[in-house]
């Protein structure tokens, strides 16, 4: 049973962006409101009533996306008698290049709807589509919520991997595949040093590795402004860590993890290919796992993996993770039906960005990411 303080909920309803009418579907009581979590001082308390909430549902991530890319929060909330029954996170992306649409959420691997009963959650989906029609969205994309779309073919599917962080360090290490354990031991003996940091300077150091790795994979890097916002709203507020490995003072690998509630998120990882033989990425991951377990996280989500990316899938499975499917559902509001998509994470553009100098890729990334959300 979901609960929320009645006084907080009544105040939230009065400050919401506006109530939406109920539309279609089975009878569901309660009021539906479109809300902006950034304007809700009680938002984190509301989320705490949902056992399955993650960092991505929180205010900090909404601030990063709105501040960097101008995405407009349009989270749908159903309440009854001061009790929150369902929450559907969405943001409006408005681009002159790629059109206006609703995404739940942009640049987010997975953001499940939260609900106590499926009828309430389905009602929010209907309300979101009505809002999208009024706003002339091209489509609405829901990143999660498989149970709400029974009989609907996903627009895209990915692998997800989650690691149980409960138990002591020996138990966690024992779950790793033998090749991963060997890589960690090798890196520990190679003279690498590892630091867990929250400084902006550490973020700058990570970003230099990030740009190298994006070039290797043929993708433009996000702007440094995105990482500055992530530092300001997330890392500096004790909701994220930057883990860096150095060899003789030189950064060779790094990762950024966010955390909220019981779940931590492996959001970014990067390395210098010149030092790949030192297995710095393995040591960075292992040190992050230990730190997160010691500091209260119960699970670590490794993000999404394209179905065709067998190498990345194998890497994530090597940490003792449990694999599941991440399904997206896309409703085309012009065609008035659910549609399928093609995973465009690989293609001709990879060859282009592999060939471009990093400064040029950075400029392109800064210009285009707000249109790709």
General description of the model:
This protein folds into two domains: 6-150, Aminopeptidase (3-Layer(aba) Sandwich); 160-325 and 356-363, Gcn5-related N-acetyltransferase (GNAT) (Aminopeptidase), CATH 3.40.630.30. Helices cover 36% and strands 28% of the residues. The chain has helices at residues 6-15, 43-47, 59-69, 118-135, 169-175, 178-189, 200-216, 224-233, 280-294, 310-317, 348-355, 358-372; strands at 19-20, 31-35, 72-73, 75-80, 83-88, 91-95, 99-104, 114-115, 139-143, 156-164, 193-197, 240-247, 250-260, 263-271, 299-306, 322-332, 337-339. Strands 3, 6, 7, 9, 10, 11, 12, 13, 14, 15, 16 and 17 form a twelve-stranded mixed β-sheet that branches. It has a five-stranded antiparallel β-sheet with strand order 1-2-4-5-8, with helices on both faces. The longest helix has 18 residues, at 118-135. The protein is globular and about 60 Å long. The two termini are 34 Å apart.
Query: What summary fits the major beta sheet?
Result: 12 strands, mixed
Average pLDDT works out at 91
Give me the number of helical elements: 12
CATH level-1 class of the largest domain: Alpha Beta
Coarse structural class: alpha+beta
Termini distance? 34 Å
The CATH architecture term of the largest domain is: 3-Layer(aba) Sandwich
Quote the beta fraction: 25-35%
Secondary-structure element string? HEEHHEEEEEEHEEHHEHHEEEHEHEEHH
Overall number of structural domains? 2
How much helicity do the residues have? 25-40%
Shape: globular
Total beta-strand segments: 17
Q: CATH superfamily of the largest domain, called what?
A: Gcn5-related N-acetyltransferase (GNAT)
